[in-house]
Each structure stands twice: as structure tokens, then as C-alpha cells.
Amino acid sequence: MRATAVAHPNVALIKYWGKSDTEKNLPATGSLSVTLGGLHTRTTIEFNEQLKQDQLLLDGKADAAADLRMVRCLDELRQHAGVSLFANVESANDFPTGAGLASSASGFAALTVAGAAALGLSLPPQELVRISRLGSGSAPRSLFAGGVWLDIASSPGETICSTVSEPARWPLEVIVAVTSVEKKAVSSTAGMESSRAASPYFDGWVSSHPQDLADGLSCFTDKDFMRLADLAEHNCLKMHALAMSTRPPLLYWSPATLACMQAVMQLRADGVPVFFTVDAGPQLKAVCLPEASATVRERLQSIPGVLQTLDCTLGQGAWVEPVAKA
Fold first, then answer.
1. How many CA atoms, within 13 angstroms, populate the side-chain half-sphere of residue 155?
2. Strand pairing report for 173-178 and 284-288
3. Can you give the C-alpha Rg of the chain in angstroms?
């Protein structure tokens, strides 16, 4: 009763920020993302009758904040399998954890896929979506490849997730500018709830979102990079404006984050096909066409405060690692 799964993090180009139902961890809006090949979470789960409780090691350390959300996912899997065994979970990222690189998304996607495999379950994709969402509202997107749509409108009270553009169809690349490896002071989960409760602009964010999402889907259908660039940057800055207008304010950027934004905007003004997006953290993601990646990387690496750059193509959905033969 042991399995290992791997998942990539994702970055939303049309973002969600805020919950409509905190108990079910339902996003208040849909979202559109790309799965980041090149960055990985690897999670191993073993169900064992000797254990007295579920145990989690994240990057070799206990993580109490993730324990409750992990148990919620595991309880759903145990119910499907009709078992009550506790599990030992070991998860590791090859990128900074809790620093705005969607480690919770890839983590709970890998947890759900590994847990189902360890229990011998063959669950429909949308049930994996529902279970992984209990851990992280963006985890369902890491179950899928390429450009991914998380839809909340088609089935009220639930989420539906699917690939809208396979990696090979529109091979975008993403250069991540890492400006800090420290865990952020306010988690996305806590920040979203604060914005919902204490920003005067939250209702405007939600009401304006369906048009952004429809336009984003159209950009992927048409492979219209420049229109997507304008839309994604607008949606990103709108989300951060919402966060900044929260009391107390949520400011996730570092000075280097802002410098990277300005550099990307100048590159595009100079004819380089690139745009930026930033999640709840200080890391900037520069999305570009493949022929521009070397230029974008070189420019970002030259900015003071950028610790390193990470190269990503569009990745596959979460998968179970085959068991090595003895």
C-alpha cells in the first residue's frame, strides 16, 4: 500500500483570489493556468496498520500547517477505499517551498494521485479534482498538462478542470526569476480570506473576472500571444491591487520583483514576445515564445536581487512513478 507520484506546479495567467466556500475550499472565480515542466514535487505515501496517526514530512521537516489539509484529502481517499489505515507521507520539492511558486498546488496534486494509487483506487479525473481541491484551490490545475482551465460556472458548488491546450500545440516557455527563497509571511489561503473580508474591491474583482476568463480562453484557442500578454498582466496587477487594498495590506513583491516587471514590459515594447505574471509571492514568471527565452533569461539574470532563474517548458499532468523491479 505504497506509491509515489510526481506533479508540476502551475502558474495562473487568469488568477483566482478568494473563496466562495471556505469549508469546501471552493474558489470564488475560475482560473486559467500553465503547468510548469522542469519543476517537480515528488510525494510518497505508505498506508500502514502500525501507524497511530497520519504523518507528513515536507522537504524533510514536519509541517503542521499542511497536516490538516492533508488529512482532509486522505480521509476522502480512505472513504473511497473503505479503509481506516493511517499514512506516512514524504514530500519534497526541487524548488523553493511556500515562496510563491505554487508548491501547495503540486504538493496536493501529487498527494492525491499517490494516495489513490497506494489504495488501489481508479478514480475519475474530476473526483481527483475534487479531492485535491480540499488541500489547495489551485491543486486541480497541476493534475493536467499544458494550458489548464479550472471552471466553477458549469457545475455550481463544484469545480471542473481540463486541459485546453496541450504542451505541443502551443509550446510556451516560462522563465522564473527567483528573488527570495524565504517562506512568505502570509500564506495564500490566509491572504485570500483577508481580502474577501477586508478589501473594498473584492466584489469588483469577482464580477469582472468572467470576462477575463472568457478572453483568456479565446487567446489560447487562437494562440494569440500579444492579446494574452496584455490580458494576463492586467489580471495579475488587478489581483495584487486587491491584495494591497486589504487591511492590513498584503504586499507580496520585493524590490527585485518590481524591477523584473519593468524589465519585461520594456522587452515587450522593444518587440520581444514576453509578458509577466506574479502569484502571491516575490517570484516573477516571464512567459515567452521559445525563440525569446535566451534574451529574457539574460535580461532577468542581470537585475540586482534576482537570485537565480529557472527554465520551464509547459509540463505534463501528475503521474504515478512505476515501481522499480527488484
1. 9
2. antiparallel
3. 19
Predicted confidence at residue 101, as pLDDT, reads 58
Q: For the domain bounded by 2-166, which CATH number is listed?
A: 3.30.230.10
Averaged pLDDT of the chain: 93
Q: Which fold has domain 173-314?
A: Alpha-Beta Plaits (3.30.70)
Instruction: Give the number of other Cβ atoms within 10 Å of residue 249's Cβ.
Output: 12
Q: What is the DSSP track for 69-128?
A: HHHHHHHHHHHHHT---EEEEEEEESS-TTSSS-HHHHHHHHHHHHHHHHTT----HHHH
CATH 3.30.230.10 intervals, the chain? 2-166
Predicted confidence (pLDDT) at residue 312 exceeds the cutoff of 70: yes
d(CA 156, CA 126): 14
Give yes or no for a contact between 111 and 73, defined as CB atoms under 8 angstroms apart.
Answer: yes
> Does an H or E element contain 66, and which?
helix 64-81
Residues 149-182 as b/e (b if ≥16 CB within 10 A, e otherwise) read bbbbeeeeeebbbbbbbebeebebbbbbbbbbee
> Using 50, 70 and 90 to split pLDDT, how confident is the model at 68?
confident
pLDDT at position 131 over 80:
yes
CA distances to 60, 243, 250 from 133, rounded to whole Å, are: 24, 22, 24
d(C-alpha 103, C-alpha 178), whole Å: 14
State the Cα–Cα distance between residues 44 and 109, nearest whole angstrom: 12
Domain with CATH 3.30.70.890 in the chain: 173-314
Which helix (H) or strand (E) covers residue 258, if one does? Answer: helix 255-269
State if pTM tops 0.70: yes
Start-to-end CA distance of the chain, whole Å, equals 17
Say how far residue 287 (Cα) sits from the centre of its chain. 15
